[in-house]
Amino acid sequence: MSLPSIRSLSTSTSPPTSTSPFTPTIHPIFESSTGTWQYIVACPSTHRAAIIDPVLDYDRATQTVSPTTALALLEQVSRAGYTVEMILESHVHADHLTAAFFLQNRLARAQGGLRPPIGIGKRVEQVQRQFGRRYSIGDDEYVGVFDRLFDDNEIFAIGDLRGEVMHLPGHTPDHLGYKFGDDVFCGDSLFHPDIGTARCDFPGGSSEALFRSGRRLLALPGHVRIWTGHDYPPADGARPAVPWTSVAEHRAQNKHLMDGISQQDFVALRSARDASMAAPKLLHPSLQINIRAGRMPSPTDKGDRLLHLPMKGGDLV
Question: What does each C-alpha distance from 79 to 3, 74, 144, 246, 272 come to in angstroms?
Answer without folding.
Answer: 13, 8, 32, 29, 45
